[in-house]
Amino acid sequence: MTMATIRAGLVPDDVEQCVRIWVEAIAHRDGHAPAHEVGAPVREAFARPLVRFAIATGSRAGFATVESEDRDPSGAYLHYLAVDPHGTGSGVGGQLLADAISHAAAGGFTTLALEVREHNARAIGLYERAGFVATGAPVPHATAPYRMQPYVLMLR
């Protein structure tokens, strides 16, 4: 397991690195990823207020963003978590997830929710090992032809 350094991300300084990581991770998972189409929503996410924006540095790079839930102000939402595809399986995703959970709990949130592609076994395993539980049926992705499974972690 690779130990990365987790630090607070800086907007706008770290945004393009995160876009690159996201586009490369999606291309690795799906076999292709049109950079503009896949990267634009990531850039837009940084315009919203963030509870936590974390960057993993070291031999493996990654990032995570946590936002306040729109529907429930007591809940936080893990919007993005991605690791450079050359670093998957190195523990960096787990470190970023632990950081997101810690900051959401310290921020007084009672839950941390997320959505994951329903057949993304690696990510689902990571979330379930951290205590996340699937909630409800998978829902259509807003812009892609697949479904997302909602998960939630009770923080207190």
Could you characterize the architecture of this molecule?
It is a single chain. Strands 1, 2, 3, 4, 5, 6, 7 and 8 form an eight-stranded mixed beta sheet that branches. The longest helix has 16 residues, at about 15-30. With about 160 residues, this protein is an alpha+beta fold. About 35% of the residues lie in helices and about 30% in strands. The chain is globular, with a radius of gyration of 14 Å. It contains four helices and eight strands, in the order βααβββαβαβββ. The model has no long low-confidence stretch (mean pLDDT about 95). It has a single domain (about 5-155), classed as Gcn5-related N-acetyltransferase (GNAT) (Aminopeptidase).
Keywords:
156 residues; single chain; 8 strands; Aminopeptidase; 29% strand; alpha+beta; globular
What is the gist of this entry?
With 156 residues, the chain is an alpha+beta fold. It is built from 4 helices and 8 strands, in the order E-H-H-E-E-E-H-E-H-E-E-E. The longest helix has 16 residues, at 15-30.
The number of strands is 8
Strand count, sense and barrel status of the largest sheet are: 8 strands, mixed
Structural class call reads alpha+beta
Task: List SSEs in N-to-C order.
Answer: EHHEEEHEHEEE
CATH architectural category? 3-Layer(aba) Sandwich
Cα shape: globular
Q: Can you say what the CATH homologous superfamily is?
A: Gcn5-related N-acetyltransferase (GNAT)
The CATH topology assignment is Aminopeptidase
* Strand percentage: 25-35%
Work out the helicity level. 25-40%
Report the average pLDDT across residues: 93
How many DSSP H or I helices? 4
* Distance linking N and C termini: 29 Å
- The level-1 CATH class: Alpha Beta
* Low-confidence segments: none
Radius of gyration: 14 Å
| Overall number of domains | 1
